[in-house]
Design brief:
- It holds the Pfam family CYTH.
- The protein is α+β, with helices and mostly antiparallel strands and about 575 residues long.
- Helix content is about 55%, strand content about 15%.
- The chain has 18 helices and 10 strands.
- It has a 10-stranded antiparallel beta sheet.
- A hairpin with a 6-residue loop joins strand 8 and strand 9.
- Helix 12 packs antiparallel against helix 13.
Length: about 575
Amino acid sequence: MSTQSFLEVEAKFSVAESTQLPELTRLEGVDHVADTRHHALSAIYYDTEDLRLTHAKVTLRRRTGGNDDGWHIKIPSEAGRTEIHAELGEPVDGRYEVPSELLHQVRSIVRHNELTPIAQVDNKRTEMVLADADNKPVAEFCDDHVTAFSFLPGGEQQSWREWEVELAGELPGTEEGTQFIRRATSLLIGAGARVSSSPSKLKSALGDSYANAPLPPALVSPDVDPDSPAAAVITALQANRDKLVDYDPRVRRDEWDSVHQMRVATRELRSHLQTFHGIVVGPEIEKIEADLKELAGILGVARDAEVVEERWQKLLESEDSDTLDDSTREHIAQDMGTAYRRAHRRVIAALDSERYLELLESLDRLLADPPTADKQQESAPVNDDAEQTEEQSSTEEGAASSESREDNAAAAEKAKKKPEKKSKDKSADMDTVMAQHLEKAYNKLVKRHKKAVENWDNPELSLHEREDYFHDMRKAAKKLRYAAEAAGSATNLKTKRLYKACKQMQSVLGDFQDSVTSRDKLLELADSARRRGENTFGYGLLYQRERTIGLKALDDYAESFKDIKAAFKPLRKKLK
């Protein structure tokens, strides 16, 4: 079944039945009404029992009538909404099935939940095509008389009239299009219309019955003290869980930068679970961390190919020495693009897997009922015996990541020395607890910095081994940055300066690591070329250029580390 996709940018207006339509050619850019058509439209909207699509501002419908009858799905995007169409198809066993191409786009939201009809919207539409002086369409204006039925408990029949202006041609997503919508809004409001308070016909159709549906797990408010460190961590985790789900359909459509952003959300989720271990605890954490690591790795292969392809195109553009033969240029220009497409297919396979869907379910369960340390201490039997404390810490160790185990062991040792410490540490306020976790992340960064600097000129290590220490440093800066962002957004801690310093370090070491990855891929291409009996001189030339670029990136390393040190000093005062 074929599908079509395009960007939808529109504005909706509520209007009384008696309101007269203004002269639309008064709009700048509109020369005449090129065509006027009348349609009788009928659409059935689908969603899960708990309205997951509606809550995510996604609409899925099967519409008959008009010039675009078929299945339509509308998904939020940066400049408006992405609308994807599929053919009506034939019923199976007396019912119409949602096309797999469209279901694929919302798998991260729907998962295994059944999609059923939730509303019907019938519409008598007058559609006008607004064209410029060259007879090119600039917008479509619709005058709709709507009758709708909600199939939810308590649903009722409703009727209303609305106007709709939708950009056409090349205007969607442009500044010119934005200005056109503004002028149209001014004209229509002047004629008596009001900007619609409802984002869609579906929302209007559901009316008050919308509140009768159960709440999706992702929207359940967790039972945590809003002034606790756990609340800050949960808020940070929720934001990245939402980002993960939001970028899923964009990755499937292979939108620009979508793989990178989804990978960032995945890594940040895992980083928070590691950095703030001890605030959010429990055996399920380890499984979630492992699944996030696996997903980040798969996304990473595609992202690396994407980055290297871009670097190589720039290298080719700047190489004017005539030392690259045609064969080398062809491989440099095309091979990483082929590798990216192959890696992207593996990403899609991962997003369609049961493991990924279960990961999303696990995150929802975790965030709806977070296993915080306070809850575990409240439910655990009171026992101040040091041996009991050690056993409890040992259990938490098994659930933690490898980096968190060191923290758990230290915590157990402290518990032995201070068995009189209360199970609920009321004396430590939220700022102090979060600052303590920031300090742990900072101390790890300092250790990795020392290893990287001390071993840079170590003759006993290979080049890759020495470079790997800086790669570890980059990961530490990333974790500290994520932790600073989470703490700063939920507490009174001033972490903005630390966040910026870590981001700058990431940028420095990111450029360095990209050059390392590019060099590795150049070596792979050179080996393949050598086996084919081709000239490999050009690969060596580009390898050395990438080596120089990487070393140049490290020029700002020392200054970036000083900035991180200086930014962390005020936070140390909080701990004192």
